[in-house]
Amino acid sequence: MKTIVLAEKPSVGRELARVLKCNKKAKGFFEGSKYVVTWALGHLVTLAEPGDYDQRYKQWLMEYLPMMPEKLKLKVIGKTSHQFRQVTFLMKRNDISDLIIATDAGREGELVARWIMKLAGWRKPVKRLWVSSQTDQALLQGFANLKPGNDYINLFNAAVCRAEADWLIGLNVTRALTCKFDAQLTAGRVQTPTLAMIIEREKEIKNFKPVNFWTLSADFGDYSGMWRSDKGNFRLFDQQKARRIEEKVKGQSGEIISLTVKEKKEHPPLAYDLTELQRDANRRYGFSAQKTLSVLQGLYERHKLVTYPRTDSRYITHDIVPTLPQRLKSMAAGSYAALVKPLLEKKPTPGKSFVNDSRVTDHHAIIPTEQALNLTALDIDEKKLYDLIAKRFIAVLYPLYRYDRITIVTSVNGEKFVSQGKAVKEMGWRAVTVRPEIGAGAGEEALLPEQTLKQQKKGEKKQVKSCKIKNGKTQPPPRYNEATLLTAMESPGKFIEDEALRESIKQGGLGTPATRAEIIEKLLYNFYIERSGRELLPTSKGRQLIDLVPPALKSPELTAQWERRLSRIARGQESDKNFIADIRRNAKELVDSVKTDTSVYKAENITKTKCPMCNNFMLMVKGQKGNMLICSDRTCGHRQSDKDESHEYWSSERGRGKGRGRGKMEGRMGKKMIERFSDNKKKTGGSLGDLFEAALDKKGGGGNN
Known about the structure:
The protein is of the alpha+beta class.
């Protein structure tokens, strides 16, 4: 008898087959003496589309909302049905005794495998491979320590709840908005509050009124000082007062009335989780969150140089500690060799600031594996991202950064001037990498410059060589870029009034580390936001959408409630049936809210160019590769470059990955199919959007999250 091993992707399946010595290759699987290794192609099974329940739902009409099937059904995804048939055939072979789930070790990976098993009718024993890296050693150890399949049933239940909730909320509210306002509008419990945060920030910037302020600095020869009030403020909002102080101290003699030296120490930054890595890659290299995830996936799957990417933990567990020397040895190449040398001269002993079992759930932090590093095999982007991970990992194991903080207060005619500097005692981890200063430039202390302070003594007299007044203006909050938006999505507590919910969302935030990049891409794809350099700006469409969506969807509170309950379901502490019952009630309330709305939507970017498919006027939007034209008629859905006149041009801006973008979907459909559908759309009441709907959100099982 043999065991079937179900991986998530062909690339992972090939590696598993090699490790398990399954050398016989066939279409859709590899086979050996003990194992048959096969795979999904991402998702092979998804939630059924509205039209699969009722013919009425093929028409986007308000009177048929909300759509509330008694039980959500599964269906095979058409474009990958050939692989589903192959997997089903293997599962039904008489010589197959049991199955090992080897999909990604997380909530969505569990969903991929068990939906396939459910639709294929699997009834035999199940075990789970749960690993955090793809090295041969990790895989062999994982197969030697397989987990009982039942241990992950609750994780699967949580994944199903998330998928069904996104279907019930996302599809219903999206259809309601689209029908009500006759425009292509979408909404969801993650993308909508994320958009609301961007728009709220834009309002703050627009309403901000700058205020003049003045600062004074005095030159004492071998150091300078910044004037500070008795209340600790460095800024003056009265220019005349600033001038009076200038006259009072100019050319006068002062005295050092305070000199303090405080020993300071800084712990190294924690290792990366996905969100923190996406932030750093955006700040340093301008990588989008999606690009970081894509490059990182290659380092994990293809090169096997880093551990599981889609993690929300920045810690490791105690069982990883014995592997640290080997990980360091394996990465001792190029410039890293000199950095790891002092760590290998003695056994690494990381403290509880890095080793904390209680702070690791499904996966530990992203760290290098035991795979030997070959820098020549990496492209430029892979080298950049690996460098961030490698140096952060090394830095975590380095000593503390120690220095003396020196503060001098010099009094001149009763006015106090503060000087600040530092004397480094031990570079520690800062010899490896520099932690980005998040939020630098904000607050009073940021106005005080760092300087090198020579040996000074309290009571020493100082002559004012010169005194300068500098004018400044208060600044509005900065626009979001992807780095700061990821931070806001991770910690949206300030947008939540309920204290208990604010506390609970600290553990989850908006979306998950694995989905936040996708949410930003959806906002861009639907033209709710656009990029201006590295900044993210809301469009007219995005601003109007936020005015139209039900208030409950604008706040992160909905996601906070969901994630708290989904976590409880995953731990077996809450009923999945109760959760879905509440979601159904929420969906109905949200649709009713849209139905009774009296607002109006108006496209402000309409052009004089007519759509080649339906002859309606087109809208001008800013895409990532330049301006685009999209049809104003939601039942058409045509889009093209503003420089392209061909009827056959279809944008593939986001037609990447597993064939999930509209562009590739349209390309595969072909012109004849589109024309045939266009001829019949009046009879069916359907739209091109109906055809695309199934292709847009397969990864999440439907809906607009």
